[in-house]
Amino acid sequence: MSFEGGPIVTGSGSGDSGIKRYMTLVYNRMFAALSLTGVVAMICVSSPGILQFMLGGFATILMISTIGITIYLAAKISTLTAERASTLFWVYSALMGGWISPILAMYTGESVAISFFVAAAFFGGMSLYGRLTNRDLTSLGSFMFIGLISVLIASFANVFMGSSRLQLGLSVLSVIIFCGLTAYDVQKIMRFYNGGDSCEILKKKAILGALSLYLDFINIFLALLRVMGRRR
């Protein structure tokens, strides 16, 4: 059996080799998606006309579109081809770059860079923990998901309250929550691996895994930017 990134050797004693190749594919897709998002965001931020268009309300349309693609991918992954799912993932990544561009434009370039590298360090550490720990992180994932719902509700309420202190506290909590979800998602992705799956199924599982980790990283980065960033 083979798939992108090299052959997966299955059978007795070959599980470690297969899952390493599988996780490499997941991370490669995730990093490629982040790169695409970064390029689109930089183009938008560096072009006053495009940025003004985003600020005019188009970013909201992009946000709704990204949510729709996420729901569609999760619901239809079993019937989509791997190629179609991959295309939707790249479209999603590009749209996300447009959506976050007005947010990035609010902060100095130094703040964006520092927040990105700190987010990468947090993500890398928690990702490594998720891969190496022998602890079952299912309960952690459930707890973090409950925390995420609470943060979303509080954030919605703060739209009307306008409390900067509450917003700061929610941003700090978001960093903690998505760091925990990173470790949980990595472990979950590894458990979904099955060396007996076809190339097509493995590719689709890798896309969903990459999407989960992509969202973890983006949310850590944006939360850190709100905590550490200096506005222009």
Describe the protein in words:
By secondary structure, the chain is mainly alpha-helical. It has one domain. It is built from 7 helices and 2 strands. The chain has helices spanning 15-46, 48-76, 82-105, 109-132, 138-161, 164-192, 199-228; strands spanning 2-3, 6-7. A two-stranded antiparallel ribbon has the order 1-2. β1 and β2 form a beta hairpin. α5 (138-161) packs antiparallel against α6 (164-192). The longest helix has 32 residues, at 15-46. The protein starts with a strand and ends with a helix.
How do the helices and strands line up, and which of them pair or pack?
Elements (H helix, E strand, L loop, with lengths): L1 E2 L2 E2 L7 H32 L1 H29 L5 H24 L3 H24 L5 H24 L2 H29 L6 H30 L4
Antiparallel strand pairs: 1-2
Helix pairs in contact: 1-2, 1-3, 1-7, 2-3, 3-7, 4-6, 4-7, 5-6, 6-7
- What order do the helices and strands follow? EEHHHHHHH
Overall number of domains: 1
Shape: globular
Strand order of the largest sheet: 1-2
- Count of helices? 7
Poorly predicted tracts of residues: 1-14
Q: How many β-strand stretches?
A: 2
CA radius of gyration: 18 Å
For the termini, the CA-CA separation is 52 Å
Mean pLDDT: 90
Major sheet summary line: 2 strands, antiparallel
Task: Report helical residue fraction.
Answer: over 70%
